[in-house]
Structure prediction request, 145 residues.
Amino acid sequence: MDPAETLPMLRRRFPRSSIAVVSMFDDDATIDRVMGYGADGYIAKSVRPDRMVAGLRALQKGEFVVLRSDQPSVQAIPAAPPVLTDRQVEVLTMLAQKQSNKQIARSLDLSHFTVRNHISHLLRAMGATTRSELADKARHAGIIA
Prediction:
């Protein structure tokens, strides 16, 4: 299946469903691409089964999930907080306030796909796998209050 065609079609046909992509690739470009096509989650096939189940459960709760390889170097928490744009900090702040992607998109006059891409980038940049973990890490790093 071609994700460029399949994911938008699935998103149109099942707008309330969570869509996860499980793949052997976990590079930034691939993750950005499938999240941009409408996936709510991205899970590398090399992820331990317990982490995969936890990620799928988070998806069921409406969270966005990016689970990369179980290799420690990929999952390491950055030593210093990443440099984020003002827009990314705005999205992160609203996410921490438990606003949905649609609410964030409306408030910032963005498409929900743009918000999804920002969140995907933030998850990777902060080494987080769920929205809740992302908010916690951002607070702990002093990026948001």
Remarks:
- The CA atoms of residues 13 and 62 lie 18 Å apart.
- The helical segments are 3-13, 28-36, 49-60, 72-75, 86-96, 101-108, 112-126, 131-140.
- The two ends are 42 Å apart (CA to CA).
